[in-house]
Model the fold of this input.
Amino acid sequence: MSSRMDVSERRFQGKISADYLLVMQGIPHLAEIDREVIGAIHSFKSPTASNTLKLLEIGCGSGRATAKLLASRPDISLTAVDNEPQLLVQTQQNLQNEIKQGKLALVESDALAYLQSVSNSHFDIVASVMALHNFERTYRNRVLREIHRILKPGGLFVNGDKYPPDDPTEFYRVLPLHLAPFFDVLGPAGRADLLKEVVFHELADLAPDRAMKEGEFLREVSEIGYSGCKFTCRKNFDTVFYGCKL
Done:
């Protein structure tokens, strides 16, 4: 049996899972983050001669970003992993045709457990949107190491996610800007119950044992061995990270 540290939490159970698309409306720049991630995948040139680009998505949720990943280019074979059954049901319903066509495989699994089951240098790209910040820091470091291992040489890791600034003054300046859109969306919708759950979730994301701060993350991935690391498209706490495996 896996130890507690080997298993990511199911942080999208209950109301957040049931109303996931409504909650995501509280990130008004999400489409912009998506476009940056999709652009990186669309322009990626595989150093290996193959007609199929193997892409892994970590934390597919309801399939919102998954559909965009599949549409980014015709040569993609996508494996999407999530540990929340209720969200995977939504993905399955939303992307039935892509599953039937063999373009998409859904896997219900803990992220680290799945990554550990994959052979070395298997995927061309690993992508994620708004998932890795949910992981506890020690667990996330292990995930990042496994992503590096399973990428092919020249492979790409791209992550659109929540990376709070290291500077405390900037952090507290941005915090209300980050939370306000959730009030703007869920308040008029009459969902005080969901708003409370979302705010608690967001604050937990920023706790010392979980916060994925920009500078710390850059040092971490550089130590693991990622190259060409950079951030683009910053919107409040959210930005897009690129890193490659040499």
Summary: The longest helix spans residues 168-186. The radius of gyration is 17 Å. The first strand starts at residue 53 and ends at 58. Residues 5 and 109 are 15 Å apart (CA to CA).
